[in-house]
Amino acid sequence: MRKSIMIVGVGGQGSLLAAKIIGRAAVSQGYDVKVSEVHGMSQRGGSVVTYVRYGDKIYSPIICRGEADVILSFELLESARWLPYLKKGGVIVTSEQKINPMSVITGKAAYPEAIVEKLEQAGAAVVSADSLDIARKAGNEKASNVALIGLGEKYFGIDSEILRDAVRTSVPEKFVELNLRAFDLGAEAAATYKNQ
């Protein structure tokens, strides 16, 4: 077994914590794990990508075009930006959050419409939900990264309880219950998703 997961979004959305949780869970399940550093403009607003690869033996954290089993996207437009990296039969798990890039802010472009539909037309399997709203229901929108992990957990090839344990050991103790609620609500959203 070998899994290649790309975690994409913009700076400040918690992609590094998401990579830490998934990587820690994969280690706990007995896999060899390689996690890349964050690449991109990691200050708030810049596009960022982190690679998490795990399996029986992994030699490099780098994921090339057409190799990602899962693209875990914190922002809708970022899921489209990184689509060429998805392998045939892979899945995009994306938040429906929209953060305007500089070209939209300055009026040089409009934020694209119907991104999920366009991804599906391009042949991608897509699971999308409003992870910010899920996190708000759990108690705090800052847990949206963990809600997104819950939304995608069935695609990671890692036992759900091991992922929950990784959440427990990766967030400060006072936020554990909040993040576990966000994870569980994300998983519930995935279970009712139209593509399932």
Q: Characterize the main sheet.
A: 7 strands, mixed
How many DSSP E strands? Answer: 7
Span from first to last CA?
22 Å
Order of H and E elements: EHEEEEHEHHEHHHH
CATH topology: Pyruvate-ferredoxin Oxidoreductase, domain 3
Shape label: globular
Share of residues in strands = 15-25%
Describe this structure in words.
- This protein has 196 residues and is an alpha/beta fold.
- The protein has helices at residues 15-28, 76-81, 102-105, 115-121, 131-138, 144-152, 160-170, 176-191; strands spanning 2-10, 32-35, 39-40, 47-55, 68-73, 86-95, 125-129.
- 38% of the residues lie in helices and 23% in strands.
- Helix 1 crosses helix 7, helix 5 (131-138) crosses helix 6 (144-152) and helix 5 (131-138) crosses helix 8 (176-191).
- The radius of gyration is 16 Å and the shape is globular.
- The relative contact order is 0.17.
Topology diagram in text:
Layout: E1 2-10, H1 15-28, E2 32-35, E3 39-40, E4 47-55, E5 68-73, H2 76-81, E6 86-95, H3 102-105, H4 115-121, E7 125-129, H5 131-138, H6 144-152, H7 160-170, H8 176-191
Helix pairs in contact: 1-7, 5-6, 5-8, 6-8, 7-8
